[in-house]
Design brief:
With 298 residues, this protein is α+β, with helices and mostly antiparallel strands. The protein has helices at 30-48, 56-62, 72-87, 97-102, 149-165, 248-261, 265-272; strands at residues 9-15, 18-24, 68-69, 126-129, 134-137, 169-173, 176-180, 188-192, 205-209, 213-218, 226-227, 232-233, 238-245, 276-280, 285-288. The strands form four sheets. It has an eight-stranded antiparallel β-sheet. The protein has a three-stranded antiparallel β-sheet with strand order 3-5-4, covered by helices on one side. Strands 8-9 form a two-stranded antiparallel ribbon. Strand 6 (169-173) and strand 7 form a beta hairpin. Helix 1 (30-48) runs antiparallel to helix 5, helix 5 (149-165) runs antiparallel to helix 6 (248-261) and helix 6 (248-261) packs antiparallel against helix 7 (265-272).
């Protein structure tokens, strides 16, 4: 690997209870880049948030089975979520909303009374007319797009920065990283740890990327990944899974599905040829798909 010669310009800000940042290869592009990222984040928050009573997603969940027209951002996010569910055989499923409420991982909102069930309804209960941008969700089903919307927002934000400024850019939304445009010499330097808020000297590994995206799913800080087959937080086999792919969205889907699958994720990821780093709760680290071993101190 080539050692980079200078530190790219960057900005860090608080977002969705965590930390986000944007780095640019061209220092003069930083102000415009930060504004572009914040614009995309604001669009996704208003469309897809499970924490806002005025979000489009809240309106869909409150429609109680009635067809609902949705805007382009929510449509894209819902398309991504449904495609992810199909690609992972339901391991990453957008109908986990009530399960998250039941385990106090989401606000209860307009849900009345206790919630008790053994599994989530499943993505096949969601009907999306992609041409007309109309979605129908069965009454009693609550969508949550947290497993995919953040990664899609990272991809969209990076693309928006590059289109507006022409600068190479890395966008990091709470551990979901997306790259667009030419990387600085030696690539983007990324520290992979159990928590995206960790300092640079925390145990982990430093890798370099020139394109695509990287996502890390972790059960260490706040275990909020639901196993759709049980409706409960997944059994903790891997404490952290990091995956690199052509986009942050693809990387995030694979990392989340790996947490759900546990030990079975190794062969599943290998079959997809995705570079991945998986750390079990006992500290064992497995690297797949050409993920580098250099500099791993975990």
């Amino acid at each position: 690997m080539i050692t980079k010669t200078r530190q790219p310009a960057g900005a860090t800000f608080e977002l969705w209870g965590g930390q986000a940042s944007v780095l640019v290869a061209d220092d003069d592009a930083l102000s415009a880049a930060e504004a572009a990222v914040l614009d995309v984040v604001a669009e996704f928050d208003l469309a897809c948030s499970s924490h806002r009573a005025d979000s489009e997603l809240h309106g869909v969940n409150a429609a109680a089975g009635r067809p609902t027209a949705i805007g382009p951002v929510l449509r894209a996010a819902l398309e991504a979520a449904l495609d992810a569910a199909r690609d992972t055989d339901g391991d990453v499923d957008p109908t986990v909303g009530l399960a998250l409420v039941a385990h106090r991982l989401l606000p209860s909102g307009d849900v009345d009374g206790p919630i008790s069930f053994q599994r989530v309804p499943g993505y096949k209960t969601v009907q999306l007319d992609r041409e007309r941008s109309i979605v129908t969700v069965l009454g009693g089903v609550r969508l949550d797009l947290g497993a995919t919307a953040k990664a899609l927002a990272a991809d969209r934000a990076a693309a928006a920065v590059y289109e507006e400024t022409g600068s190479g850019v890395l966008v990091n939304l709470l551990g979901d990283l997306a790259i667009a445009g030419p990387a600085p010499e030696g690539g983007w330097r990324i520290r992979v740890t159990d928590d995206h808020r960790s300092p640079l000297d925390a145990p982990g590994q430093t890798v370099r990327l020139n394109e695509g995206g990287l996502a890390t799913s972790s059960t260490v800080v706040r275990h909020h990944i639901i196993d759709p087959r049980t409706g409960s937080p997944t059994a903790v086999y891997f404490k952290t899974v990091s995956v690199a792919a052509d986009s942050c969205l693809v990387a995030n889907i694979a990392a989340t599905a790996a947490i759900v699958r546990g030990a079975c994720a190794l062969s599943w990821l290998e079959a997809r040829g995705l570079p991945a780093r998986l750390a079990t709760v006992d500290g064992t680290v497995t690297r797949l798909g050409g993920w580098p071993a250099d500099g791993d101190d975990q």
